[in-house]
Amino acid sequence: MDKVAVSQCPLLSEYFPEVPLDLLQPILLRKSKAFQRLGEIYRYLRQRHESVADGNSVFDTQITDDSFAVRYYNSPDGGGYQDLKARIKCDANKERKRVIQQMESNHVRRSNIITEADGLGHTKVKKMIGRGRNRREEYVHDTYACRKCQAESEVRTMKTEFHEWPLPPENSVSEKLVLFEMASPEVFEHWRSTTYFILHDVCIPLSSRKNEHARPLQGYIQEEDGPGKVTLASLAQPLAKSNPYHALPYSESDVCLPNALTYRLYDAAGDAWIDDPFESCDIRDLCTLRITLDGVYDGLTYAIRNMTHTSNEVIANQSDCPQGLTLHEYEAFGS
Questions:
Q1: Is residue 215 scored above 60 in pLDDT?
Q2: Domain extent for 314
């Protein structure tokens, strides 16, 4: 997979292959062909690591000019992103124009209502008040039927919709990252998702973190099966989701807001943020014989998990020998 991805996307050769060199050490093989294949894989990985000794990772959380997405966007292969960007901006400008027109219309309507309310008096109706001898008929203010009160209440509660720009600041690394992720090379997407699946989902216990996330540009992505496993999401929610309307009066700058989302790599299938995803990558447990819990050999799991112990250490730990084993069996298994 890495060979294919590098051949079709040469820029990827300047970034780490992600697979640690010592990842395959615990594998136990019986056939010579399997040993040969493992040797070829190891030599290839070593060559890739040596060629990018000072390189970055495509999973880095910090986005800079050296990030893969930004460099690909700026490369000749990234020319198509300008069309995507223009389409998003065109749609955003149309929506922003509609919001501004709505605000102006609401301002006119608000002004008319205020003028109407200023020219009205409070509505009064005849009502009988008091009891007994003090019972009498008077004109009292009827707040429910009073048009002036209704108009003043309508003015106080009038709101207008606002628009949040869908993209990060113009020509920023964040904008380039977002546009790249919306239309990343297919081979890169397969390579990254497969690499993440193997190194994270297989070699590391699945994360149980759950997060609220936002993907407001989803409509511009052509995906038959939904978002890829590794995608972008924002921990911050769109402003329109928390409070889509502003109380009047407001100016154009108040209803046309910049993008406030903060994008990060996100595991859509595992519902977890991607942050140093391979820090604990290890397949030793997957390649180690599992001893029955609470069995007589349970205390000797360390002996088959690695080879860092010595025979003298096993002999020194004879006091830990369970009753179901003889000392000879204990030493033989541990050594």
A1: no
A2: 288-334
